[in-house]
């Protein structure tokens, strides 16, 4: 088994457990027993947990010991990601009845509850951060700031805003799609996951920047792979994606360049840190090849 599979198999269950435990800790069950199962349905339904895995992979790559509060901080982004999927599935957005092979939250519990469950998950992300009392407050503040920047109007929400214009059939270009939609909508949260690792380790700003760049390149490649998969399933889909705009071969070459730029960041980190082992983060990139 390679390092990536070993690492994922070790940490996915621990991430799931932390999410479940923290859901009880921040639980509305004392005052709202009806919403509790809705939140659990949205949060604990079998995602890959890619973003927390990336934060933990940074810690592991620098040979750091991962504490329970490191794990907690790594999961904050997953609460945000979970909310974004619930809202993305709503009738006013992508209008999807299914998510991860089961009914989407609004299809199961109703539209209004879909909105409210998303709102609660987003708020909980930051509440969970306040539970990580053993983390140095300056480091935690950097994580919180990065998450807010990359989840909000300067990140995922802003990218989703432009994505909605794409859904309305606007004429678009490759540059517009990459800069206005893919980067903020998908790559921003993924780059947060890398930065969170750098902040937890209190790495110098230049190294955090390399992690951010790795994350942005990886995140764009991740979105492009998702497009390629969708395009293979349905090339006539109405929403314009990169393969629609420039064709499959050119899209694959954009992805290959992004992966190669991400590898460059790993090499630079390895040059300045003797204790940095690039293999695991390299294997995350290999998942997209
Ligand atoms: C509603 C503000 C708001 C934003 C929604 C995340 C998102 C923004 C939309 C999802 C659309 C989509 C399919 C994007 C492609 C890349 C992506 C984020 C896929 C889903 O992430 P995974 O593969 O999902 O990490 P799992 O299920 O493993 O958690």
From TrEMBL:
<protein>
    <submittedName>
        <fullName>Uncharacterized protein</fullName>
    </submittedName>
</protein>
<keyword id="KW-0479">Metal-binding</keyword>
<keyword id="KW-0414">Isoprene biosynthesis</keyword>
<dbReference type="InterPro" id="IPR000092">
    <property type="entry name" value="Polyprenyl_synt"/>
</dbReference>
<keyword id="KW-0460">Magnesium</keyword>
<dbReference type="Pfam" id="PF00348">
    <property type="entry name" value="polyprenyl_synt"/>
</dbReference>
<keyword id="KW-0808">Transferase</keyword>
<dbReference type="InterPro" id="IPR008949">
    <property type="entry name" value="Isoprenoid_synthase_dom_sf"/>
</dbReference>
<dbReference type="InterPro" id="IPR033749">
    <property type="entry name" value="Polyprenyl_synt_CS"/>
</dbReference>
<comment type="similarity">
    <text>Belongs to the FPP/GGPP synthase family.</text>
</comment>
């Amino acid at each position: 088994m390679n390092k990536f599979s070993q690492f994922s198999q070790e940490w996915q269950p621990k991430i799931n457990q932390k999410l479940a435990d923290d859901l009880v800790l921040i639980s509305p069950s004392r005052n709202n027993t009806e919403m509790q199962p809705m939140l659990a349905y949205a949060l604990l339904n079998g995602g890959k947990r890619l973003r927390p895995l990336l934060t933990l992979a940074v810690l592991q790559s620098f040979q750091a010991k991962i504490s329970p509060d490191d794990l907690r901080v790594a999961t904050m982004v997953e609460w945000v990601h979970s909310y974004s999927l619930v809202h993305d599935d709503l009738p006013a957005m992508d209008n999807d009845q299914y998510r991860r092979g089961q009914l989407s939250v609004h299809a199961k519990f109703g539209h209004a509850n879909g909105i409210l469950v998303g709102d609660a998950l987003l708020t909980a992300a930051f509440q969970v951060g306040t539970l990580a009392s053993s983390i140095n407050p300056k480091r935690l503040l950097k994580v919180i700031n990065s998450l807010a920047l990359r989840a909000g109007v300067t990140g995922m929400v802003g990218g989703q805003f432009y994505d909605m214009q794409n859904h309305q059939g606007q004429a678009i270009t490759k540059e517009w799609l990459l800069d206005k939609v893919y980067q903020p909508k998908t790559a921003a949260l993924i780059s947060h996951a890398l930065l969170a690792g750098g902040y937890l380790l209190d790495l110098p700003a230049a190294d955090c920047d390399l992690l951010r760049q790795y994350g942005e390149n990886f995140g764009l490649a991740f979105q492009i792979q998702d497009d390629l998969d969708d395009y293979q399933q349905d090339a006539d889909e109405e929403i314009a994606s990169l393969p629609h705009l420039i064709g499959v071969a050119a899209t694959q070459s954009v992805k290959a360049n992004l992966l190669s730029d991400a590898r460059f960041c790993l090499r630079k980190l390895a040059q300045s840190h003797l204790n940095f082992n690039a293999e695991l983060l390299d294997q995350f990139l290999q998942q997209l090849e």
